[in-house]
Amino acid sequence: MNSPLVLLLRSRYMAVKAVHEALFNAKTAVHANKLVEPEPFRIPFGIAKLALVTGGSMYIGGMAAKHAALFLEENEIFVPDEEDDD
């Protein structure tokens, strides 16, 4: 029932699985041999901070553009024509 190919593949799978477990479960051995670098530094709440800064910047920029457009229109520096609505 077990052909030589199945036995070969099973033995290779078991060998790879054993090496994988040895490398990734024993973190001290991995770091001592420099096979895998330690986990990189992560910034806590990185996505939330990014969304907050991006959203805040877009809001402030929109408000500045709105007030600049009102200033230009009040001082008649730039007044859009009624015919340019196309």
TrEMBL record:
<keyword id="KW-0472">Membrane</keyword>
<comment type="subunit">
    <text>Component of the uniplex complex. Interacts (via the transmembrane region) with MCU (via the first transmembrane region); the interaction is direct.</text>
</comment>
<keyword id="KW-0406">Ion transport</keyword>
<dbReference type="GO" id="GO:0051560">
    <property type="term" value="P:mitochondrial calcium ion homeostasis"/>
</dbReference>
<protein>
    <recommendedName>
        <fullName>Essential MCU regulator, mitochondrial</fullName>
    </recommendedName>
</protein>
<dbReference type="InterPro" id="IPR018782">
    <property type="entry name" value="MCU_reg"/>
</dbReference>
<dbReference type="GO" id="GO:0036444">
    <property type="term" value="P:calcium import into the mitochondrion"/>
</dbReference>
<keyword id="KW-1133">Transmembrane helix</keyword>
<dbReference type="Pfam" id="PF10161">
    <property type="entry name" value="DDDD"/>
</dbReference>
<keyword id="KW-0809">Transit peptide</keyword>
<dbReference type="GO" id="GO:1990246">
    <property type="term" value="C:uniplex complex"/>
</dbReference>
<keyword id="KW-0109">Calcium transport</keyword>
<keyword id="KW-0812">Transmembrane</keyword>
<keyword id="KW-0813">Transport</keyword>
<comment type="function">
    <text>Essential regulatory subunit of the mitochondrial calcium uniporter complex (uniplex), a complex that mediates calcium uptake into mitochondria.</text>
</comment>
<comment type="similarity">
    <text>Belongs to the SMDT1/EMRE family.</text>
</comment>
<keyword id="KW-0106">Calcium</keyword>
<keyword id="KW-0496">Mitochondrion</keyword>
<keyword id="KW-0999">Mitochondrion inner membrane</keyword>
